[in-house]
Amino acid sequence: MIQMLLSGCSYNISVRKLSLCLLFAFIFMFLPDAFAHGVAEGDKGFIQESSGVMIIPFIYLGAKHMVTGYDHLLFLFGVIFFLYRLKDVGLYVSLFALGHSVTLLLGVLTQISINAYIIDAIIGLSVVYKALDNIGAFQRWFGYQPNTKVATLLFGLIHGFGLATKILDYEISPDGLVTNLIAFNVGVEFGQLIALSLILILMGYWRKTASFWRFAYSTNVVMMSAGFLLMAYQITGLIVTS
User: Fold this and answer.
1) Which residue would you say has higher pLDDT here, 40 or 136?
2) CA separation for the pair 50, 60 (Å, rounded)
3) What is the residue-averaged pLDDT of the chain?
4) Which of 171, 185, 190, 161 is nearest to 50 (CA)?
5) Rounded to an integer, what distance in angstroms lies between the CA atom of residue 59 and that of residue 86?
6) Which helix (H) or strand (E) is 114 found in, with range?
7) Residue 221's pLDDT band (boundaries 50, 70, 90)?
8) Given CB 3.0 to 4.6 Å as the disulfide criterion, which of 132, 162, 212, 219 pairs with 119?
9) Is the pLDDT of residue 72 over 70?
């Protein structure tokens, strides 16, 4: 697989690759915070004012958080890039959801908080990692292949902790808190299924064409660039707010 991928690298794609990188940069420059790894302003107000068990609204918020979070989607896109069997997709998605759920609940209930910019920069790093993993960089550079299942669980933990950190800022009511957080995680799972179903359908068509192996390498390079942009955006925010 890696050899086929590397053979695609020889294709002259520099102009197209640069254009895609610039497109990602343009998108990240003008995307509002509402679509970042967090909660939209309107939803933030709802969370702050809500009290008691509200299962359906929090399932909706969880699903919305997943399908509008481009950092989530970028990472998951990288995770399933070379997965063909549904049981493999289900395994990796479940590992990510498990990690996300554990740290979201743990972070909120224990009120452990870390600067959101640092967490989000690490999330950008997770996108970079997955892109490098997909192009076989670790094997070529270090002669070592990280355990992708462990890495997916680890980054799921970080993604969940990032959201927990932001929710703590909203002073959410303790009334019905645990039930609402569980409902939120159920919504995250629904959102993942919706987003991944669409991605898998599109990739199913793409994989049947010769262009998949031709552009697989460049696609992961663009994804890696997007991860670096996410990191730079968050580190800049950390420096400015400090």
Assistant:
1) 136
2) 14
3) 78
4) 171
5) 24
6) none
7) very high
8) 162
9) yes
Q: pLDDT at residue 6 above 60? A: no
pLDDT on residue 37: 52
Two tokens at 90?
A: 């289900």
The answer, yes or no, to whether residue 11 has pLDDT greater than 80, is no
| Residue 3, domain member (yes or no) | no
d(CA 177, CA 236): 33
Q: Which two tokens stand for residue 160?
A: 């969940």
- Which candidate, 159, 92, 170, places its Cα nearest to that of 122? 159
Q: Is residue 14 part of a domain?
A: no
pLDDT beyond 60 at 21: no
User: How far is Cα 145 from Cα 236, in angstroms, rounded to an integer?
Assistant: 31
Provide the token pair at 124: 């950008």
**3-state SS assignment for residue 66:** helix
Q: Which residue range forms the structural domain that includes residue 150?
A: 60-241
179 and 53 Cβ atoms separated by less than 8 Å: yes
In sequence order, what are the residues at sequence separation of 6 or more whose Cβ sits closer than 8 angstroms to the Cβ of residue 51? 173, 175, 176
C-alpha triplet 151, 39, 93: angle, nearest 5°: 30
Q: What is the chain's Cα-based Rg? A: 18
CB 131 within 8 A of CB 81: no
Q: What is the pTM of this model?
A: 0.73
**Local structure of residue 176 (DSSP, 8 states):** T
Q: Name residue 155's amino acid.
A: F
Domain total in the chain: 1
* Confidence (pLDDT) at 18: 52
Q: Is there a domain that residue 64 lies in?
A: yes
pLDDT above 90 covers what percent of the chain?
Answer: 10
Residue 24 lies in a domain: no
